Amino acid sequence: MTELKETSGGPPAAQASLGLAALIAIVVGSMIGSGIFALPSQMAGSAAPGPLLIGWVITGVGMLMLAFVFQTLAERKPEVDGGVYGYARAGFGNFIGYTAAFGYWASAWMGNVAYLVLLFSTLGYFFPQFEGGTTLPAIISASILLWIVHFMTLRGVQTAAFVNVIVTIAKIVPILTFIAIAIVGFKAGVFTADFWGQHTQIDGNPLGSTMNQVKNMMLVTVWVFIGIEGAAVYSQRAKKRKDVGRATVLGFLAVLALLLAVNFLSYGLMEQAKLAGLADPSMAGLMEQQVGSWGVGFISIGLIVSLLGALIAWVLLCAEILRIPAQEAVMPTVFGRENAHGSPAAALWLTNGCIQVVLILTLFASSSYLGLVLLATSLILLPYLWSAAYQVLLAARGETYGDGQGRSRDLVIGGVALIYAIWLVYAGGLEYLLTGAVAYFVGTILFVWARREKGLQIFTKPEWIIFALVAVAAAFGLFGIVTGDIKVF
Questions:
Q1: What 8-state DSSP symbol labels residue 198?
Q2: Coiled-coil ranges per the record (predicted)?
Q3: In the chain, N or C terminus with fewer CB closer than 10 Å?
Q4: How far, in Å, CA of 350 to CA of 337, rounded?
């Protein structure tokens, strides 16, 4: 077969219909899901206020640098579309770009399964037949909701984005209500009772050293910040490219402020050991303590709305992260085709079909929510790493920098973000990295399909080496899964 020459131009432009508000809503909507509602007890089980403060400073700086990376790349490389995918491909080639797109896509739809399970588990407060989120009535209802969102998105990205703006506003209301009530009920004596966690025990176990507490709480923060890249993924649909960077930073700062307020105020409402023992969503338990039984229902409704908003945001992101690579011979062409409403229909069908299959599997799997969250988190970390590395590469080469234009700031920002991203990959744990390698290895079928479809070279020599490393890691991962040493769900 005659090999076709790859074109350097980008994909056909999508309709540029998303303004700053819609882009911010995508960032906030994808970041605020379930994590903030469970944050009080999860953090209380990991760290006392002092180590918590240190950990949030480190996390805040690391994630802010990552937000600045997406802002800088959006401004310096406006021709690169697809966010984490586009930056990985531009900096490190087609196969690395593919792994970023596939990892992000797989992470996104697995996270949506987790959201659906928790959504109906929360509805179990009102309807006992949904209790746990994985009963037959819950899975049937979750499937119906999934396909409602699917067909709404098929009607057009703009329609779904508008709904996401409304839902995002609605889900912030209960969080702000909790913060206002927590400010009134805050007791400084409770907050400072054991500031460094030297005496507090959780389930009979001490919290450990300050550094151990810092590390433990930082592991919890990974899940709550996923979605920071949402606007960058939608760069091609933005009315103004500069709004992509603005939306990323503004959305991140808004969510960070909410997380900090919820987390620190909760330590002043209840003793840490009791706080750690609250059932999820722990924010509901705190509201019940402050205002009575109606607080549980109020926060549960807020969580339901929040999860619905996160589901819509992530269905949008799932489809978009397949669409652009498909138009650049990195994913099969079929996933780049849009219907009459401008929605990537095939990408949506594949994504939601995968969600449906795993939803059914949760009827038979144990600990499915936690397992899916951890696996989804580990899959998304490498795309973050490639984006930070690309900024370092641009600044080091001086690419896009004119004569006399300083690069030190961008080198520092990119370097800090890269170090933080490497730490996150390490913190994700070997178990989930190996499981992720299995997913990457199997998913390479789509990359091979796309390259053969266009008559293009499948792997360059360096990419063969990378693929071989993925294959070896996948072999170890598969062995661990078969022997039971690695549990997928």
A1: S
A2: none
A3: N
A4: 13
- Cα torsion angle, 221, 226, 232, 238, sign: negative
**Per-residue pLDDT in tens (0 to 9) along the chain, 489 residues:** 333 445 444 444 555 678 888 888 888 887 887 778 888 998 998 899 999 999 999 888 998 999 899 889 988 998 898 889 999 999 999 999 999 999 889 888 888 888 888 888 888 888 999 988 888 999 999 999 999 988 888 877 666 677 778 888 888 999 999 999 999 999 999 999 989 988 888 888 898 899 888 887 876 777 778 888 877 877 777 888 888 888 989 999 999 999 999 999 999 999 999 999 987 788 999 999 999 989 988 998 888 888 888 888 788 888 888 988 998 999 999 998 888 877 888 999 999 999 999 899 888 775 545 566 667 777 788 888 999 999 999 999 988 887 767 789 999 999 999 998 888 777 667 787 888 889 899 999 999 999 999 999 999 999 999 999 999 999 998 998 888 887 765
For residue 13, tell me if it sits in a domain: no
Query: Does residue 8 sit within a domain?
Result: no
Question: H or E element: which one contains 426?
Answer: helix 408-428
Residue closest to 313 by CA, chosen among 14, 12, 2, 29: 29
How many domains does the structure of the chain reveal?
Answer: 1
Crossing angle for the helix pair 210-225 and 35-44, nearest 10 degrees? 170
d(CA 297, CA 262): 18
* Residue 288 lies inside a defined structural domain of this protein: yes
The CATH number that applies at residue 430 is 1.20.1740.10
- Residues making up the chain, counted from first to last: 489
Q: Which two tokens stand for residue 168?
A: 């995002």
> Could you tell me which residues are beta bridge partners of residue 18?
238
